[in-house]
Amino acid sequence: MGKVKSRNDTPADTKEAGILHAEKPLSEDERDLTLRPQNIAEFLGQSKIKENLAVFIAATKARRESLDHLFLIGPPGLGKTTLAQVVAHELGVDFKVTSAPALDKPKDLVGVLTTMTKNSVFFIDEIHRLKPAIEEMLYIAMEDYELDWIIGQGPGARTMRLPIPRFTLIGATTKAGNVSSPLVSRFGITCRFSFYELADMEAILRRSAGILNVRIENDAASLLATSSRGTPRVANRLLRRMRDFAQVKQSRSITLDIVENGLVQLEIDSLGLERYDREILRMIIERYNGGPVGAETLAISVGETVETLEDYYEPYLIQAGLIQRTPRGRIVTALAYTHLNIAQKHTSGALF
Ligand SMILES: Nc1ncnc2c1ncn2[C@@H]1O[C@H](COP(=O)(O)OP(=O)(O)OP(=O)(O)O)[C@@H](O)[C@H]1O
Ligand SMILES: [Mg+2]
């Protein structure tokens, strides 16, 4: 129970906030919470998801029922945790949050579900990491709003069914493929996040700049939007860095010049790639002759975990058209060669 977090406590943001500047992680966390949208109007972009959810939420509220269980899929930093909070807010219900690794024993799950209020939202992050025993309890909870609870031990042990209030489970994952099909089939609504469009990224940056009370010029916001890999968390992080650069230069606003120099300083290129992204591409090209190379091998080669490679780096590299996944492994595209300014070799080894 102690592992269940209250509204606004976001482990992922805590993890992210200190990456570029470790000096003031706490204050950055605090500020990021103020940047997090609270209601559907503040949640920018992802219009298809929002339109559908708005209908389902309105209908559910009119019937005074609990919303169907909701499954959120997408790469890190696109707003899954944020959307879960927004949904609870729009429904006007309580919100409890935990992540699958924190649900270690059946009693952890029982502890949360027996203390829920009617129709409230229970958010489980990283739901692909649930233990099988917990997952099975969750099936019954999701379907019948009951819990199997074993009393006693050995031959005398009995299973009791505990009724629990109706609730909405919101499960989030960066790895939909790792979620078991019985669990997937129990979610009534599935939302797949896509990387944000440029216009939405600009709007997010403008909103955040307003909250942080910093002025940003139009061309500077556009460039920052293209460099934020379609990800609000990255946009907010870069915006804070640019504010630092502007402050040091005693500039009253974030100008194009500040963003251009700032991105060079942070080693972020015109496609929004970070140093690691380029290392991954270079590794596939130079060591594996453009691929195919398996994820494990590649992760070891660049000194990253497979998780980080697959969850954070790869989705954007694929979306940007720089690598492709094939059954035999990852390959780089011609665009990767052009972007890194490396001549592409024929398999024969001849340059063209
Ligand atoms: N649609 C949005 N509009 C404005 N800001 C957003 C939006 N989505 C996310 N953000 C901002 O990006 C930050 C990261 O979002 P969030 O923590 O919800 O991502 P996530 O998908 O849960 O990531 P992870 O997979 O790492 O848990 C939020 O703190 C919020 O400030
Ligand atoms: Mg999250």
Structure overview:
The structure is a single chain. By secondary structure, the chain is α/β, with parallel strands linked by helices. The protein has three domains: 11-192, Rossmann fold (3-Layer(aba) Sandwich); 198-265, Helicase, Ruva Protein, domain 3, CATH 1.10.8; 275-340, Winged helix-like DNA-binding domain superfamily/Winged helix DNA-binding domain (Arc Repressor Mutant, subunit A, Orthogonal Bundle), CATH 1.10.10. It contains 15 helices and eleven strands. It has helices at residues 11-17, 25-35, 47-63, 80-91, 106-113, 132-144, 181-184, 198-212, 218-226, 232-248, 256-265, 275-286, 295-302, 306-319, 334-340; strands at residues 70-73, 95-99, 120-125, 146-151, 158-163, 167-173, 189-192, 215-216, 253-254, 323-326, 329-332. α8 packs across α10 and α12 (275-286) packs across α13. The protein starts with 10 loop residues before the first helix and ends in a 12-residue tail after the last helix. Mean pLDDT is 90; it is low at 6-26 and 348-352. Adenosine-5'-triphosphate (ATP) binds at residues 10, 12-13, 32, 35-37, 43-46, 74, 76-82, 125, 174, 204, 232-233, 236.
